[in-house]
Amino acid sequence: MSHYAWKWGSPPPPVKRHSEVKHALLRNYLIDYFLTLVAMPHQDRIKLTIVDGFCGGGLYISESGHEVPGSPLVILNAIREATLLIETRQERRKPIDLDVELICIDKSKTTLDYLERLLKDRNYGAALAAGKIQLVKGQFDQHCAATIQRAKGRSRISGRAIFVLDQYGYSRVPMHCLRDIFATLPHAEVILTFYIDALISYLNEVNLAGFEQATGIRGGMTAAEIDEMKKSPKWRVHLQSSLYQSLTSQCSAKFYTPFFVRPQRGHGDFWLLHLSQHWKARDVMATTHWNHSNHFSHYGRAGFHMFSTGYITKIDSKDQLQGGFDFSEVAASVSQDTMLEQIPVMLFDIAEDISFEQFFLQLINTTPATRMMVESTLLKLSQLNEIQVLGEDGDESRARVHLKPDHVLRLNRQIRLMF
Ligand SMILES: C[S@@+](CC[C@H](N)C(=O)[O-])C[C@H]1O[C@@H](n2cnc3c(N)ncnc32)[C@H](O)[C@@H]1O
Predict the structure, then answer these.
(1) Does residue 3 sit within a domain?
(2) How far, in Å, is the centroid of ligand 1 from the Cα of 103?
(3) 296 and 401 assigned to the same domain
(4) Protein residue whose Cα sits closest to atom 19 of ligand 1
């Protein structure tokens, strides 16, 4: 059953608060994405394919009666905004060419008809005619392979593509699609919606088996195992944590951000996962969250290993909501305090010298912190004489502002003796 109805001549569907949150993130991320890429020297042209795999009709109506853009318009507006920002902020020798092709997929014909009329209305008729915007009717999983090939054909070497997979529910994006994306396109990124609560709230062995069959996520449980698991007061935590680990380990993305959204009025939480093959992409997404903390919250702990306890929507016995981590200034300072305590213990456990690069790459998936935040915490620990930072000659470095990837981190001897 579709929860959204777009029919030309009738008002568009009402926008849901969580859709606005997703759209804000998408807009902010795309702008940050382009600004990061153009900051690279000699970059005059960015060739990118964006696939909006569950695109919808492109327009909503807000509670106050205003029109609100859906994801295709959010993407197109973000490209325009980024182009303007680049032109005004940077003194470039040549104007930047953002060569983006947008492929919109939806299984509903009336929805796509609506989107086509809307785009023509908003002056995108020429882009449609030139194939810069393509509308594809059908299920995402049926068109996934063709869109991957299209993105590859357009950008053979870098394979730049962003897949916005805003599925309704949790079972319409099979793992083989994600694996194909990452195997074929070295710079692909996926922003995936996953309604974790819809799965957990009605969990039984039939649901779970159906979910596993549809997605290809393995980790099966029998009815007896599910019953046994549900006896534990923390079963939601365990299940979220294990599903998260199954998904991230089986989709073959190297880097991921585990951010969660809690819609108002108790519609259940969903994950908004960002999956990528490059630490920089992950870092830009984490930075976007910190830069726009008013739009977003995710719940988890500060510092590293934020998943050690998992994340839950309800503490089962008392039915209370878990506290949030909101990317605010307070959260940033708690993150630094937590990392100041954690890093010496981690360096003690690692036991050997380790470069900043290796240290960061080992931990990036377990923290809401950005590379810059980890770097400044390490520099602070060095000023506090808790760790040493060594240059390539093996001598203590005087780095105070930035660390180089090959700077070596070592726990101070005195601190080592305290453990
Ligand atoms: C939540 S709405 C779209 C939201 C849109 N991404 C936005 O943010 O404005 C979900 C859309 O997915 C479409 N849909 C559902 N299952 C699909 C599938 N397997 N493949 C492609 N589209 C699908 C529905 O017709 C509906 O228009």
Answers:
(1) no
(2) 13
(3) no
(4) 139
Long-range contacts from 125-133, C-beta under 8 angstroms, 24+ separation: 131/101, 132/100, 132/101, 132/102, 133/72, 133/76, 133/101, 133/102, 133/104
Q: Report the candidate in 370, 362, 195, 375 with the shortest Cα–Cα distance to residue 273.
A: 195
Domain check: are 187 and 313 in the same one? yes
Site to substitute for ligand 1 among 2, 54, 103, 135, most atoms within 8 A of C-beta: 54
Output the CA angle 396-287-364, nearest 5 degrees: 55
Q: So what's the pLDDT on residue 317? A: 36
Q: Point out which residues pair with 102 in neighbouring strands.
A: 50, 133
Encoded tokens for 116: 């086509």
- Name the pLDDT band for 316 (thresholds 50, 70, 90): very low
Same domain, 289 and 371: no
Of residues 58, 16, 298, the one with CA closest to residue 164: 58
pLDDT digits (tens, 9 = 90+) for 344-396: 999 998 888 999 999 999 988 888 889 999 999 999 999 999 999 999 888 88
Beta strands in 317-386 (DSSP E): 320-321, 354-355
Residue percentage of the chain with pLDDT more than 90? 52
Are 216 and 174 in contact, with CB atoms under 8 Å apart?
A: yes
Give residue 166 CA to ligand 1 midpoint distance, Å: 7
Q: Could you give the number of structural domains in the chain?
A: 2
254 and 227 in a common domain? yes
Structural domain contains residue 158: yes
- pLDDT tens track for 227-242: 888 888 777 777 777 7
Do 277 and 335 lie in one domain? The reply is no
Pocket residues for ligand 1 (CB within 6 Å)? 2, 4, 19, 54-56, 70-71, 105-108, 111, 139-140, 166, 168, 172
Q: What is the mean pLDDT of residues 141-161?
A: 95
Phi, psi of 262 (to 5 degrees): -110, 105
Q: Which of 282, 304, 321 is the last residue of a domain?
A: 321
308 and 166, same structural domain? yes
**For ligand 1, atom 12, which residue shows the shortest CA distance?**
54
Same domain, 75 and 214: yes
Q: pLDDT of 21-48, one tens digit each?
A: 889 999 999 999 999 998 876 778 899 9
Domain region containing 129: 17-321
Same domain, residue pair 300 and 341 = no
CATH number of the domain residue 94 falls in = 3.40.50.150
CA 28–ligand 1 middle distance (angstroms): 21
Residue 301 confidence (pLDDT): 53
Task: Among 264, 296, 321, give the residue marking a domain's end.
Answer: 321
